[in-house]
Structures are given as structure tokens and as C-alpha cells.
Design goal:
Layout: E1 2-6, E2 15-19, H1 56-69, H2 72-82, E3 89-90, H3 92-98, H4 114-128, H5 133-141, H6 215-225, H7 232-240, H8 244-247, H9 258-276, H10 285-299, E4 304-305
Antiparallel strand pairs: 1-2, 3-4
Helix pairs in contact: 4-5, 4-9, 5-7, 5-10, 6-7, 7-9
Bound molecules: 1,2,3,4,5,6-hexahydroxy-cyclohexane and fe (ii) ion (FE2) (2 copies).
């Protein structure tokens, strides 16, 4: 396995590559900072949706279905239905374990079970921000909404759970991955929805914007309605971490308000770990579990409604 080891500063400059065996691997092999690798586990640059990788076709198929199905109508129905949180009760950790069986079909960078990704993200954050325990926990739980794929949640299809998110009810920005497939979305030709502002106003705040339905908004609703004590930046990260058109391409900024702009700073910090910690490196779950259980205990009730 090839891992980047930092021999210089913490900005990722001047890295050297070294081959290490499975036993020696750690998420980050340096003096404490997380170093973003240049390539994903398939040897391609991250989020390259055109790279000829083994996942390219299936990822594109995924986005085609996603872009056709996410309409204002659909999003309204899902928010209403899943916002009831009347399906089951379980702890945060139980939910992490449920994610063990799922692989995210929208992701060109990772084909590991989701629990690996949660721990990789959280542990990477912990190295760089040791004192921000809320951010470690946010890393651990940010993708828990993918439990919507589970049979006890009506087995939602992948297109309604994973992938990048974007607003519905206004024009789909060209920076959205595989934008061309929106042409078949029924909202694409609706005059009330296909303008820059659509049904929204300048600076209305993201809280007033309907986002395509998936794991982000669902987990936000779960955390909020179960009265988490996570700071507002944590909730913002959970809710918008897949909104790459905004946090990477800077589209839709005209819908943000001051609070969104403040929270965006943390989302950008978070994104580095969410994206670049994706690797084949395994975290030893039993070793880190007590730490995360203590954080869950601090910020969440023992059982949550889902
Ligand atoms: O494929 C990925 C994956 O589903 C992530 O969980 C999501 O947050 C990303 O935005 C998406 O592109
Ligand atoms: Fe995600
Ligand atoms: Fe993630």
C-alpha cells in the first residue's frame, strides 16, 4: 500500500512515497497532521467523474437516475414522510454498525463499507483538530443518514440517499456533476422553477431552501429533532456536506445569509477530511470505540428516534 508521509511541514509540501505493509499502516503517517493524498484508492485524482475507472459507468448511471428523480414534489414528500421519525429507535453507535453493509454507489473514490469511511473521517479530523471534539463526532455521524438504504427504512434506492446534493425549486447549476441529465427532470422546464431564484429570494438562507433528498438532510432532521447539543456548525456540516456546487464551485451563494456564511468556514475545513481520508486503510474499531461512545454520550440522548 502506498501512503504519503510528510517529512516537511503540515501543508503537504515535499512528500515522499513509501511502500508499507498492512500492519504499519496508519491513516496518517507523520508527526500529527493529516496529509491529503493526491490520488484515491483506485489511483485517480479525487472526484474525477470522467476518469476511466472501474466505477465510472455505474457512478454516471447513478447520477442519471438521481437527476431525473429529484423534483420539488419528491423532496417535499420525503421531508414530510421521513421527518416524522417514526420508523425505529436506536443509538448513534447502533446506526454506525448498521452502515457496515452498505457501499455507496455514487462515490468514485471509495468502495469500502461506510463504517470505514466514518471512522477514517473522524480520526483524520482528530489529528488536526484535537480539541474540537464536536467536529470529531460530526465526522463520525455525518453520513449516518445513509441508513435510509436499510430495509427497515423502506429500502430507499441509492439515488434518493447518496451522491452530491443541490437545491430544487430553482435552476440546476452547471457545476453539478453530470448536469446534462437534468434535462429529463420534470422541473427542468417549469417556468416557476428554472430561473436563478426560482421559488426563493436573495439571501433567504439555506434553511429555507429545499435540497435534493438524501442522507444529509435526513441526518440533519434526526440530529435536530432528537435535540442534539452539537453546535450549529456541526448541524450545518451534516446538512450540506454533499452540496459541492456551493462549497466547492461557489454556485448558489446568492441564497445564503450571514449565518450560512459563518458556518461555511467549518464546512470547508470538514470537507478536506471527508474527501481525502477515503482510503483502504482500516481503523481498528474496538480501539477507538470508547472515545466515540463518550462523545455520543455528551452530545446525544442514549436512544434516538429515526
Ligand atoms: O459520492 C459521495 C458520497 O455519497 C458522500 O457521502 C456524499 O457526501 C458526497 O457528496 C457524494 O458525492
Ligand atoms: Fe455524505
Ligand atoms: Fe462522507
Amino acid at each position: 500500500m502506498t501512503i504519503l508521509i510528510d517529512h516537511s511541514d503540515h501543508n503537504g509540501n515535499d512528500n515522499v512515497e513509501k511502500n508499507v505493509t498492512e500492519e504499519e499502516t496508519e491513516l496518517v503517517l507523520d508527526d500529527g497532521g493529516f496529509v491529503a493524498p493526491h490520488t484515491n484508492s483506485f489511483g485517480h485524482t479525487f472526484r474525477d467523474y470522467d476518469a476511466q475507472s472501474e466505477r465510472r459507468r455505474s457512478v454516471e448511471e447513478f447520477y442519471k437516475t438521481n437527476h431525473i428523480g429529484q423534483t420539488v414534489d419528491f423532496v417535499r414528500r420525503m421531508r414530510e414522510e421521513y421527518g416524522k421519525l417514526n420508523r425505529t429507535e436506536m443509538s448513534i453507535w447502533e446506526c454506525c454498525e448498521l452502515l457496515n453493509e452498505f457501499i455507496d454507489e455514487s462515490d468514485p473514490d471509495l468502495d469500502e463499507p461506510q463504517i470505514e469511511h466514518l471512522l477514517q473521517t473522524a480520526e483524520a479530523i482528530r489529528k488536526d483538530y484535537p480539541d474540537e471534539d464536536w467536529l470529531h463526532l460530526t465526522g463520525l455521524i455525518h453520513d449516518l443518514g445513509k441508513v435510509l438504504l436499510h430495509s427497515s427504512f423502506g429500502e430507499l434506492p441509492q439515488w434518493a440517499v447518496v451522491g452530491d446534493t443541490y437545491p430544487v425549486g430553482c435552476a440546476f447549476d452547471e457545476s453539478i456533476v453530470h448536469h446534462k441529465y437534468f434535462k429529463e427532470n420534470p422541473d427542468f422546464n417549469s417556468p416557476s422553477y428554472n430561473t436563478k431564484y426560482g421559488i426563493y429570494n436573495e439571501g433567504c438562507g439555506l434553511d429555507n431552501v429545499f435540497m435534493s433528498w438524501g442522507h444529509d438532510d435526513y441526518m440533519y432532521l434526526v440530529a435536530k429533532k432528537n435535540k442534539t447539543t452539537l453546535p450549529s456548525a456541526g448541524l450545518f456540516i451534516i446538512r450540506y456536506h454533499s452540496f459541492y456546487a456551493l462549497h466547492k464551485s461557489e454556485a448558489y451563494k446568492h441564497l445564503m445569509n450571514d449565518e450560512d456564511r459563518e458556518n461555511m468556514k467549518w464546512l470547508k475545513v470538514f470537507n478536506k477530511f471527508d474527501l481525502y481520508s477515503k482510503s483502504k486503510v482500516r481503523i481498528k474499531v474496538e480501539e477507538v470505540k470508547p472515545y466515540y461512545l463518550s462523545l455520543i454520550n455528551k452530545y446525544f440522548p442514549a436512544k434516538l428516534k429515526w
